Amino acid sequence: MNPLQTQENKMIGVKVENLKKKFNSFFALKGISLSINKPGLYGLIGPNGAGKTTLFKCITGLLTPTEGKVILNNTAVNRKLLFQKNIFGFIPEDVGLYENLSARDFLHILAGLHGLAKTQRKKRVKEVVDFVGIKYSPNKIIRYLSTGQKRLLLIAGVLIHDPDILILDESLSGLDPVVRSHVSNLMKELSKEKIVFYSSHILTDIWKLSDEVFVLNNGILVEHDTPLNIIKKITKNVYYIESNDNEEIFSFLKKVSNIKKIEFEGNKILFQIKSENVIDEFNEILSKIMEKHSILSFGYYEPDLDQLFIKMVSSNED
Amino acid sequence: MKINSRCVNYSLFIKEWKDAKRKLLPITAGIIIFSLFTILMMYALPYLVPDIPSELFPELTPTVLSQTFFSNANNILSIITVILCVDAIAGEREKNTFTLLKTAPVRDSSLIIIKTIVRFLLVIIPYIFSTLFAFFLIILMAGKPDIPIFLLASGFFILSLLLYVCIGMLISTFTKSQLSSGAVSVLVVFSLTLVSSLLNQEEAARYNFLQIPVNVFSFSFSNIEIIINVLLVIVFSILLLLLSIVIISSEKEPT
């Protein structure tokens, strides 16, 4: 068994249908529907309290949804179906480890807990340790491992039963750049054969790694697309101008009929042009402004990822 | 698709045992010291309270010493047993390791039963050593005790420890932290000790199964009474275990 090996013709997929989860009177998820049906890296982003962990816990059966259902590999999630627990591997954000065990014992026990026969365990543990790139002695007691070493051990642990779906909640957080890059590469490698559904607060990783991104806010799925398409959608025909006379230019732009949206972002004025010939329209606006004002910079607006995230979330709140 | 349950249960047992065995030596040593202290205290008592006339102290026969040992062991081991169980489920929740078990194909019933077995072993192994130690100490100090009665008391004591383990498991199942689990455990054991002390009179004493290890030295029990008491302890233990399994299976937010 190879960590990347999956059976041929096996249907793998995650389907979430109108998922709602209520805690007392508060709805953490307000009717989420999503479908992932091919291997790849799927990022989930959203502000704190958006419902990311709740969604992951509902998918893995750790939380019972108030309404709706989750289907993994064509079977509805049901806690009583034990075989289903070998379909996925889940690393929650705050997961603990059996600190008094050695790394080797931990992996052997996890392998056994997932039903691997004793004769297969040694080989499987070695395969997973080699794949993940655990360099430290497997006899090392877990409580003496660093955060990065623990994270690699958890990844090895979650791969031990060769799941089709990996769910990683904030697995890149708290790692130094070297380990983060290593874990990112592992995820990329795994995503060739498996569904890797992960959340992270590190937006550069999400945009750089993910094949598709899901944006969650206030328990609602506000966006789902490839990172490139999301950037295009949000920044479509948005231009900026920076000047010392920003107030006057802002007032002028407000009067232009072809401008759909106008706002300040720091020292820049952002505006979206609604026209068939956007470039000509922009040139015309620019020349009119330059007749009266000096301009420090102008161009097509390319937001940084944090700004993009804030925009997505705030547009949903509007 | 089928999960090898034997592998799963064996691994769970190994995981629990690896954790439990670290505590085995200190608990065994502690309980042996406690046994020694309990018996030696009986000899030291007249010197510690010289104002009380010596006639008021009982003669230190093997029966009196055995009864003293079981009485003290009953009081102390009951609380130790329940406290040793607080980490079973509440501890897993507190350390966030419960997710590892809940996302593995482990049956809730297996989880509770295996954790109960391991904690029972963790309690009876030190208990057996301390009882053997007390037995030989009594022989050394006062002579040979009545072996059938001593064995009956030991057997009942082991059964009552099973009941205390099951009580601890139930408390650990419905509490969220080890601290709250420990606090509830202390309260429950004190209440049980109080109730069983109040019931330890006349006919009720014959079916007061928590006090049998002490009472067997005071009066004789018929075979029927012994069987009824054994059944009572087993039935209560099974009911507590079933209740723990039901609670853990019906949780909507287990982690």
Give the averaged pLDDT of chain B, no decimals.
88
- What is the helix fraction of residues of chain A, given as a range? 25-40%
* Average of per-residue pLDDT values of chain A: 86
User: Termini distance of chain A?
Assistant: 50 Å
Put simply, the count of helices of chain A is 10
Number of domains of chain A: 2
The whole-angstrom Rg of chain B is 20 Å
Order of helices and strands of chain A: EEEHEEEHHHEHEHEEHEHEEHEH
When the domains of chain B are counted, the total is: 1
- Per CATH, which architecture of the largest domain in chain A? 3-Layer(aba) Sandwich
What is the number of beta strands of chain B?
Answer: 0
Number of helices of chain B: 9
Structural class of chain A comes to alpha/beta
Please describe what this structure looks like:
Chain A is 36% helix and 27% strand. Chain A is an alpha/beta fold. Chain A has a six-stranded mixed β-sheet, with helices on both faces. In chain A, strands 2-1-4-5 form a four-stranded antiparallel β-sheet, covered by helices on one side. Chain A has a four-stranded antiparallel β-sheet with strand order 12-13-11-14, covered by helices on one side. Chain B starts with a helix and ends in a 5-residue tail after the last helix. The mean pLDDT of chain B is 88. Chains A and B meet through strand 6 and helix 2 of A and helix 1 and helix 4 of B.
